[in-house]
From TrEMBL:
Residues 196-292, 502-598 form the 3-hydroxyacyl-CoA dehydrogenase C-terminal domain. Residues 15-193, 322-499 form the 3-hydroxyacyl-CoA dehydrogenase NAD binding domain. GO terms for biological process: fatty acid beta-oxidation. GO terms for molecular function: 3-hydroxybutyryl-CoA dehydrogenase activity; NAD+ binding. The keyword Phosphoprotein does not apply. PANTHER family: 3-HYDROXYACYL-COA DEHYDROGENASE FAMILY PROTEIN, 3-HYDROXYBUTYRYL-COA DEHYDROGENASE. Belongs to the 3-hydroxyacyl-CoA dehydrogenase family. Pfam families: 3HCDH, 3HCDH_N. Keywords: Oxidoreductase. NCBIfam families: PRK07819.1 (NF005875). This is NAD(P)-binding domain-containing protein. Pathway: Lipid metabolism; butanoate metabolism.
Length: 601
């Protein structure tokens, strides 16, 4: 019979063995040693062990240079780490953390050997993010002391640690490693055993869809990455992140996720297999989705796919005046952006009163910019003077570019475009800000579909740098060139994409949000743990449930329905929990309750 685990509180985990001294193992060893633990680093490769020691020496030397460590601190940290090529060096460890390659055979062999080496009460932790902790535990002589301890790369910097329990794991083991994670200054999140756990479970589905989007030639790698950085505030674009993680590693994780879920969104995009088998695994190989200065370098260099500066676009049409249709936050924000850039702006709404209210909102926004020192009072006054508020679209007769920002309703937009077609002069560019509706349907409501294009701004328009430029199959080259030039003048980053639901950002963002809802619906993890995991493990500015409540659950559900209808993938079907909350009127912050409750103002 297995020896029961003793209460961990009187004897904290002090001696810890780390098996596998690659980048992750080295990082974990550094974190442990800095927290005062005795560390035994084990790797079958003596060269890898030496590389680990050299990395620790270099890292701690930088700490001294930056004033974070004293020379004595550094000496003590290095003295707490010893390395070995023999697994028997783990004999006295209180905890063993295995971070060997993602292979059942390799990990099972290590666990079997450890069974005959370590003490009965020693906890065995696997660092896997793709393989079943339960399967590894079941092969152990004492499955109750096996769990997952998933650090994120780089381990010294990333605060998240996922503590993974199988159905066999003893609560005392979970408590012991959770307390250790807290002592290391980390944020432990308790999760069950399924491939990817929380952070990678959500992250890799999103990365896979980005790879598939690129493979389909829907958008360039640069535009996909820029769209997600600028549209969602992410630290890296998905394709650059795949190169950093390793294309082969991503493929392994996705294979494991798909084997468990059978969700097509987790089936690895074929390009991941092609790149992996060609040895183009990302930064470590010097080439993946991008080409790098050298293997291991993060410096991207030009290659055959890098777009040329200027891009050889057709000359655009002259734009001196702009009409903005609508009276909401988006319309007033877009009008402010154009007026700040020196354009004469006609802001038209369904009534004079609504148009004047929208202009007053712009005045308040400009006043805030003056108060914060971002704008002079004179510049603010000049900007406001460039905006003419009107209650009739007839005043668009002289504009060179008309941008609609009315309700996200196709019939409403079609009627507006039919009206603009009659009012606007020949050669005027007509743009829709839709985020989910077909641009071509707006174009077909006019007699000049070649002049119609999508300009998807992000809210708040004055602050957000991204504009998705959406060409239909009918859009003229010079109309596309005009909008690209205008984006440059208003200091926005334009990305090109085709006319399909969600464009780039929403097509990648909302399936990720939907999958987060499914995790809560299935009682896999809590709202707070999922939000913490994505902020701490993925570098997201907001957790998925924070973001859903800000965007509005009704808006989110509408976009998810459009994506599901367009792509017909069962994995894109909106989570029933989201539909139930919307039906109950819990729409997020705007109603005081969504996934969380908010104080009413």
């Amino acid at each position: 019979m297995a020896t029961p685990l003793s209460d961990p509180s009187p004897s904290p985990l002090q001696t810890i063995a780390v098996v596998g001294l690659g980048t992750m193992g080295t990082g974990i060893a550094e974190v442990l040693a800095k927290a005062g633990r005795e560390v035994v680093g084990i790797d079958i490769s003596e060269a890898q062990a030496a590389k680990c020691v050299a990395a620790l020496e270099s890292s701690t030397a930088r700490g001294v240079e930056r004033g974070r460590l004293t020379e004595q601190d550094r000496a003590e940290i290095l003295a707490r780490v010893r390395t070995s090529a023999d697994l028997r060096a783990a004999a006295d460890a209180d905890l063993v953390i295995e971070v060997a390659p993602e292979s059942y055979e390799v990990k099972q062999q290590i666990f079997r050997e450890l069974d005959g080496i370590v003490r009965p009460e020693t906890i065995l932790a696997t660092g896997t993010n793709a393989l079943s902790v339960t399967r590894l535990a079941a092969d152990s002589a004492r499955p109750e002391r096996v769990l997952g301890l998933h650090f994120f790369n780089p381990a010294p910097a990333m605060r998240l640690v996922e503590v993974v329990s199988s159905v066999l794991t003893a609560p005392a083991a979970v408590t012991a490693v959770t307390n250790l994670a807290l002592d290391l200054g980390k944020e432990p999140v308790a999760v069950g055993d399924r491939p990817g756990f929380v952070a990678d479970g959500l992250l890799f589905g999103y990365l896979n869809q980005a790879a598939a989007m690129y493979e389909a030639k829907y958008a360039s790698r640069e535009d996909i990455d820029a769209a997600m950085r600028l549209g969602c505030g992410l630290p890296m674009g998905p394709l650059a992140l795949l190169d950093l993680i390793g294309v082969d590693t991503a493929r392994t994780v996705l294979e494991a996720m798909y084997a468990a879920s059978r969700d097509r969104l987790h089936a690895p995009a074929p390009i991941l297999k092609q790149l992996s088998e060609a040895g183009l695994t990302g930064r470590k190989a010097g080439r993946g989705f991008y080409t790098y200065e050298a293997p291991g370098s993060g410096t991207v260099v030009r290659d055959a796919l890098t777009p040329l500066e200027g891009g050889g676009l057709t000359p655009g049409r002259e734009v001196a005046s702009v009409g903005v249709a609508g009276s909401g936050t988006m319309a007033s924000g877009i009008a402010e952006v154009f007026a700040k850039a020196g354009y004469e702006v006609v802001l038209a709404a369904r009534s004079e009163e609504k148009a004047q209210a929208a202009k007053a909102r712009i005045g308040k926004s400009l006043a805030r910019s003056v108060d914060k020192g971002r704008l002079t009072a004179e510049a603010a006054a000049e900007t406001l003077d460039r905006i003419t508020a009107t209650g009739t679209y007839d005043d668009f007769a002289g504009v060179d570019l008309a941008v609609e920002a009315v309700a996200e309703d196709l019939e409403v937009k079609r009627q507006l475009f039919a009206a603009l077609d009659k009012v606007c002069k020949p050669g005027a560019v007509l743009a829709t800000t839709t985020s989910s509706l077909p641009v071509v349907a707006c174009a077909r409501a006019t007699s000049r579909p070649q002049d119609v294009i999508g300009m998807h701004f992000f809210n708040p328009a004055p602050a957000m740098k991204l504009v998705e430029v959406v060409r239909t199959v009918l859009t003229a080259d010079d109309v596309h060139a005009t909008v690209r030039e205008v984006c440059g003048r208003i200091r926005k980053h334009a990305v090109d994409c085709g006319d399909r639901a969600g464009f780039i950002v929403n097509a990648l963002l909302f399936p990720y949000l939907n999958n987060a809802v499914k995790m809560v619906q299935e009682h896999y993890a809590s709202l707070d743990d999922i939000d913490a995991a994505m902020k701490l493990g993925g570098g997201y500015p907001m957790g998925p449930f924070e973001l859903l409540d800000v965007v509005g659950l009704d808006v989110s559900l509408a976009i998810e329905k459009v994506l599901h209808r367009e792509f017909r993938d069962p994995g894109l079907a909106p989570a029933p929990l989201l539909e139930h909350l919307v039906a109950a009127g819990c729409l997020g912050r705007k109603t005081g309750r969504g996934f969380r409750e908010y104080a009413r103002r």
